[in-house]
Design brief:
328 residues, single chain, ABC transporter involved in vitamin B12 uptake, BtuC, mainly alpha, 14 helices, globular
């Protein structure tokens, strides 16, 4: 059955989503909600639990799809918003907005995050396009170093202008402060993913190289910039609302590709669903470890993601050694 995996992932997501709605410091029963009486429990459910769930879903879907697009366009399975300096660039934009326009609100920070995320991602791709030998491991390492440089500048500006405490909310992703009225920006993920699905075949072609794209009449640079901009804006919109959540865009597409193949149109929906499931599971763990308190989800995602990333690196390196031995 062609869509068997998609249906299974969708069912799992629905089950976990329902479970998530009834998890938290305050116990809320189904009977309380269906009674129809206005109470503090119904307010918590409507103003906090549902917005939190929607933010989680948008985060998981958005970061996973952003990573999938970047990996396809850069022709490297280790490239993502985490290893491509996109996250760090968005945070740098937020810092600049705080310094230049300290009295302005979320809108200005969002615009700066969008612009700097796009610029930082394009600069990273500009660097790797000039590498003669694009080793699978070398490319993300360059991205990590580039991101650390940007992160270091951001931290310097934070200490220099005494905005470190304000920036700390963006450095550690968490859904604990998500309430109705302060999270709706993540809905921007939806039209961007639709746009990504429309141009999925173009991203596949661009991922095969510049010469191949031009032979098929595809505007290589235009599609490349479009795809990277979509990934950067998705990432920036999530960081502005939720904060930094690493590794989702790196590990989720790689795990899905193992079962669905490399074609982006065929893996886009499954990647989105699996990303939402992954973030939802990590959030449920974050809420359960020290209940009734919770730890930042970045701690859970970062711990799990870093382990999987290391396993992927060793797997790739061992594969490269085996190829070299066979050639000898």
């Amino acid at each position: 059955m062609k869509y068997k995996s998609t249906i299974i992932l969708f069912i799992i997501l629905i089950i976990l989503a329902i479970m998530s709605l009834f998890m938290g410091a305050t116990d809320i029963g189904i009977s309380t909600l269906i009674s129809g009486e206005k109470s503090i429990y119904s307010d918590i459910f409507l103003l906090a639990r549902i917005p939190r769930l929607l933010a989680i879903l948008c985060t998981g879907v958005g970061m996973s799809v952003a990573g999938l697009i970047m990996q396809q366009l850069c022709m490297n399975k280790f490239v993502s918003p985490t290893t491509g300096a996109t996250i760090q660039s968005a945070e740098f934009g937020i810092a600049l907005a705080m310094i230049a326009f300290p009295t302005m609100g979320l809108a200005v920070r969002t615009i700066f995050a969008f612009i700097l995320a796009i610029v930082g991602t394009l600069l990273f791709v500009f660097f790797i396009q000039r590498i003669k030998f694009k080793d699978a491991v070398l490319v993300p390492l360059i991205g990590i170093m580039f991101g650390n440089i940007i992160g270091g500048i951001t931290n310097f500006l934070g200490y220099q202008w005494e905005i470190t405490q304000q920036l700390s909310t963006y450095f550690s992703g968490s859904f604990s402060l998500i309430l109705q009225g302060n999270y709706e920006l993540v809905y921007l993920v939806v039209p961007l993913i639709i746009l990504a699905f429309i141009y999925a075949n173009h991203f596949n072609i661009v991922g095969m190289g510049e010469d191949f794209s031009k032979n098929l009449g595809i505007n290589y640079q235009g599609i490349l910039i479009l795809g990277l901009s979509i990934s950067a804006v998705i990432t920036a919109s999530i960081i502005v609302v939720v904060g930094q959540i690493s590794y989702i865009g790196l590990i989720v597409p790689n795990l899905v590709v193992l079962f669905k193949g490399d074609k982006i149109r065929g893996t886009l929906i499954d990647t989105a669903l699996f990303g939402a499931i992954f973030v939802l599971l990590c959030d449920m763990i974050a809420r359960s470890i020290i209940k009734p308190y919770e730890v930042p989800i970045e701690l859970i995602v970062g711990s799990v993601g870093s382990v999987i990333f290391i396993i992927m690196l060793f797997y790739k390196l061992n594969g490269g050694r085996k190829v070299a031995v066979n050639e000898q």
